[in-house]
Amino acid sequence: MRNKRLREETILALYLYFQVPFGEIHATYIEIIKLANLIGRTPSAVSMKMCNLARFDETLKRKNVNGLSNGSKLDELIWYEFVGDIGRLVEESERILKNYDRKDITENILNEHVLEGKNVETLLKVRKGQAFFRKSVLAAYNYRCCVSGLCIPKLLIASHIKPWKDSNDKTEKLNPRNGLCLNPFFDKAFDKGFMTVTNQYKITISSIIKQTYHDDISRSCLIKYEGKYIKLPDKFAPDKIFIEYHNDVIFKG
Fold this sequence. Notes:
Helix content is 48%, strand content 6%. The chain is mostly helical. The strands form 2 sheets. It has a two-stranded antiparallel ribbon with strand order 1-2. It has a two-stranded antiparallel ribbon with strand order 3-4.
């Protein structure tokens, strides 16, 4: 029973790790306090568990940020069990949370008309996954647009690099490494293929834009970013496999 509880608590800590900015993983962060209260642990214990998990994050390793080094073998097992199947992480975490909190999971979620023929459970699953992806991507970028630096959360979008409709359910759709934090303007430009990011994380603007639009607004809002680097996230850096897909399939060179 104790082993089951430790496993579930570690899964929840990983679930939260995805959704909290790395610099905010400490005992006074409100979401950490909420989880600690829910599972009967101290905020310090939860934040420490999240820092233990951080040592497996490849983006942090490349920055020589290693998290805490005294974690358990269970931390490593949970990380590698779920990091390749984030959809399962979301489902498993939601199942565990329901055992702690019996409130109706549809409350405040399905506040729109449900299309005829759609399964409510499927819609809930998709919405929860999309909400998790958004929060994970924005947290990774510390709630700043990686191009413009805009830091107004309600004006930020978690943009898929490889589009949702083309992404694999298990490894790609909810993977924060398949995301960029962008403001709505750059999200639309990226989605329509008028800009992309290279494997070196440099911004490239489509020749369609550069050759067609010579007005000051187009230059100041878009063309001036040609060749500049995006601001990389603190964790879960964009996977170059997804970037190459966007370059090859979406970008209008």
